[in-house]
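Obj.: predict assembly geometry.
Materials: sequence records (below).
Method: joint structure prediction, all chains together.
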Amino acid sequence: MSRVKKISSILLKVVFIGIAVILIYMPIVVIALQSFNGSKNNEIFTEFSGKWYGGLFYPEGFLEGNDVQNASDLQEAIVNTLMVTTLSTIISTILGVIFAIGIHSLSRKKRQRMILLNNVPIINADIVTGVTLMIVFSIIFSELGFTSLLLSHIFFCIPYVVLSVLPKLSEIDNNLYDAAVDLGCNSVKAIWKVILPAIKSGIIMGMLLAFTMSIDDFTISFFTGARIFNNVSMIVYLRKGKALSPSAYAYNTILTFGILFVLIGYNIYIHFKNNKKNIKNASK
Amino acid sequence: MKRFSKLSIPYLIWMSLLVLIPIAILIIMAFQETKGIKIFEGKLTFNNFKVLVDDYFIESLWLSFLYSGISTVCCIFIAYPIAYIIARSHFNNRFLVLCFLVLPMWSNTLLRTKAIASLFMEGNIISSMLAKIGLELPTLDLYGKPLGVIIGMVSMYLPFMILPIYTVLEKIDKSLYDASDDLGANTFKTFWKVTFPLSLKGIVTGIILVFLPCATGFGIAEGLGESGLIGTFIQQNFGNNITYGVGALVSIVILIIITASLFIVGKVDKEGETLL
Amino acid sequence: MKKVILCFSILFLSLVALTGCKKKPKLYLLNWNEYLNGDLVKKFEEQFDCKVVQLASESNEDMYTVISNGQYPVDIAIPSDYMIQKLANEKLLNQLDFSKMSNYQSDMFDENLANLRASYFEGNESYAVPYFWGTIGIMYNDRTPGLEEVIQQNGWDVFFDETLVDKNQVKMGMYNNPRDAIAVAELYLGYSLNTTNSDELTNVQNLLVKQNQTFDVKYAADDLKKWVAGGLNLDFAIVYSGDFFDQLYILEEDGSDQYINMYVPDNTNLYFDAMVIPTTSKNTDLAYEFINFMLDTDNIVENVSYVGYCPCTKLAIEALQNDEYYADLLEKYPVFYPGNTKNGEVYRDLGDDIYRRLTEIYNAGRNA
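Observations (raw structure tokens):
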């Protein structure tokens, strides 16, 4: 009886996880299939081809005609995207941590108000954020471009970092910092040596979220300068026909599946390494 | 640590500059007939407010809430068991779970939407590949149909529901379960009396993170053939230069709705602990 | 330590910003997607030692927004007829000095186009130099047998008449911009494409609503041509003539045997896109060089091989007729040359109020 129960519970788990995996990964599987398609018309599979992956790194060598130009446009956009995303992730992580420490040390009432303000960009409609930023930036800058794009990305990334770091800050013992200062650290050193290690997991989480939001942003970028400083979403949005190099599919496949496989592989490797160690230790 | 409170001042200035001033500009714009963003040359008018009683506007607002409400409920029913299974399993590599949920979002939203849309039509890459080896799949004729839009929304936003629920479930002290067991509660009772109340925060956060973008976004629904939602309406108004006032007014309506939901979050979760 | 990181990132930032603005002059080009051969851009950049920054756009209204908001220093834009009229009326365009363009001759354009242009701008042609021209038409495939004859005999009626096609069988596509979607209904009803009569517009709205309720209609933009060419998702759709040839070239490249064709009824919309220099331009001399460059016959022919629209100059059309591939194409697909249309009407700028009304009609029809 209990065996039946066990099996059915496992079955139920498999079904649920299966539904989730299918729902979340179905579109990416389709993108991956399209990336191996020989034709530019992504609904019709002509032949298996890896040329779009080649075109991602070296267009001249793998593609012909106008595809070369399209792929190198895409390359430029990928470089732009990665540049904006990396910069905005780094900057917003640093600033976010600083601000979070600041917000954490506010009085309760003020803190709640700041958190409310902090949440606005997260849950506001993207298009409203985009338009409002455009309005402010067109007053500040004479023309939109890289700087305004980067600023807007930093703007919507910081709140995620702040939100991920705050709970970790409230988990640490307030005396920890005081103890460090008593032991002769100056305040910067105390933060560096004591606080930061304690909130490390929150920082990593915030960084990951900031990166995720930035790399895939379209709506806000559209209004704040991506027209000149093209990023990948912009290219995908505007080039609906043949000028969209299918290397874009290859890029997205690598971005999701490539990194996922590397991560899983690494974890399995670590797992086995630890197991081996354990077995060795046990045999000793 | 009080002395670090100064560190939050630049953030306050920065956020005021980029959140509060634009809202003020939007409010000014709502009372104007402008050419694009040139608010200093606009004419004062109340015509924009006609949109609030416009059938099309009301209908699209209602439709947006309907779609995103259904999608959110679906998300909860799918996400909760999954978060529960992962949190109660022996698999405790949090980082890997996180990556598994976050990495799909690194792929371009527009391409993902198009990929889903293509699956809802007869001609798509999978059917074309299967046709090569002589197989034929039944067509899911869902493009532009409500069911298709909802499946698409759930597919795109499911991670945003799993993540917060998983976060709270994982934080629950495992010894609570043991205590509940010891006190004679069965699995279901333990869940209902211990786990579920403690995970409510995560669900509320998930609802906010799924419901609002579903209701106000335009890319996903539009890509799936549904263009009657409020996001598309705003986009249309900001997409040409003569209706910025209407766009601004509708944005303000959206903002009010969002602020209201922020207060709900504030009631449940004062410290913003679980928004993520 | 953190300050060090901060300093470094600021340094890096300013470095990036610096390398961003190289010394080469920049030409900001506001253009449609897939509307300029990339090789030509390279050639132009090499010839004039500059960088062409392309701002892509998806609609005339979008171009108008970009130009009139003035957030980007657009040097050249390529909007369509009615938008040029609107931009010129609002004093957002520079008058062109034709003497600065050595390739320009007043009689260089195809006669049909020249007449059109003269009657359209009525002596006010000096704002724009034509780039490409085309028509809208019905692109179809052979998914449903017998459809080709029905389309060729009935033209626009296939979009609305239940007696012509099986409403459970056919799938049709409409452009997802107000002007073109409404044009189809107006052509069917026999109204002018520039009608502002409110009764007529109400009829148009009712017709579009009824169409969407009766048939399987998909509203989309560039996906339409792909879906027709794919042969499964649509039977026929309204497309721009250039889009049809675009898709034809891709099918040829793939070696596909999918059948597609295009039919342009006698009553249709005729349009031309033209290069203009907006008042936002900061690099006007380079802008003139660009227009001049794009008037060179060899360059036009090279551009046609990528874009799929019909060129505007006599010499370029002649060059195509002498080319074996294009001579064949022109014979097989007469729709390539818009001058063949008997009764083409050009859109005109109808003012903001009518534009709002058109958007309303379009929304009602599309979401019915």
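Conclusions so far: The two ends of chain B are 25 Å apart (CA to CA).
To do: check interface contacts against the pulldown list.
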